[in-house]
Write a structure and sequence with these properties.
Blueprint: E1 7-8, H1 9-23, E2 26-31, E3 35-40, E4 44-48, E5 50-51, E6 61-64, H2 70-74, H3 77-86, E7 92-96, H4 100-105, E8 113-114, H5 121-126, E9 130-131, E10 136-139, E11 142-145, H6 151-164, E12 174-179
Parallel strand pairs: 1-3, 2-5, 2-12, 6-7, 6-12, 7-11, 8-9
Antiparallel strand pairs: 3-4, 10-11
Helix pairs in contact: 1-6
């Protein structure tokens, strides 16, 4: 999945910490291009090892945190095609805050009730989603969360990943966190 420039650092670190602690996943950092990605709140630099287009197999989990560049990322046709191509039948998609815009623009949230940052509701509607004020919405392996993801939600998500996600326990989950530059 793809993280926007100016990604909300806590929306990366909180779910990553909880998921890593419970599942010990292999994490692949991706972006629209490989390289440095600025984060905020708190300030931090992430490094994308791969461009999102270079990731060829659907992951078990796509995590899309929000950030200042979410709308720009959502409108990028190459990002939209990459996201659609990475959505496998057993892939769980988790979008936090404005990260929901990226999934919505790719058509993954069309006709669905979704949560997200309150400032993004108009855009979510334009992309065919139905924004609601719930803290999170989960259906059909797609989970959207409003605002900064809480530790409690991330813990519940990690505990329920087997129900939502990978159909086998023969290998560790492969989590793909993406970023843009």
């Amino acid at each position: 999945m793809v993280l926007p420039a100016g990604v909300a650092t806590r929306e990366v670190l909180t779910p990553l910490h909880v998921i890593e602690k419970r599942l010990a996943p292999t994490v692949t950092w991706t972006g629209t291009t490989a390289g440095r990605v600025p984060g905020h709140d708190p300030p931090m630099i992430f490094y994308a090892d791969l461009a999102i287009a270079d990731l060829k197999q659907p992951p078990d989990l796509l995590l899309v945190p929000g950030g200042f560049g979410s709308l720009e990322m959502a409108l990028d046709g190459a990002v939209q095609r990459a996201i659609v191509g990475l959505r496998g039948p057993s892939t769980v998609c988790l979008a936090v805050s404005t990260g929901a815009l990226v999934l919505a623009a790719a058509g993954l949230l069309s006709g669905r009730r979704v949560s997200g940052h309150w400032l993004s509701r108009g855009y979510l509607e334009q992309f065919g989603a139905t924004p609601v004020q719930d803290h999170f919405v989960a259906a059909d392996r797609i989970i959207t969360a409003s605002g900064s993801i809480s530790s409690e939600f991330a813990a519940a998500f990690a505990a329920d990943l087997v129900a939502f996600g990978p159909q086998t326990t023969s290998r560790p989950a492969s989590l793909h966190f993406g970023q843009s530059s």
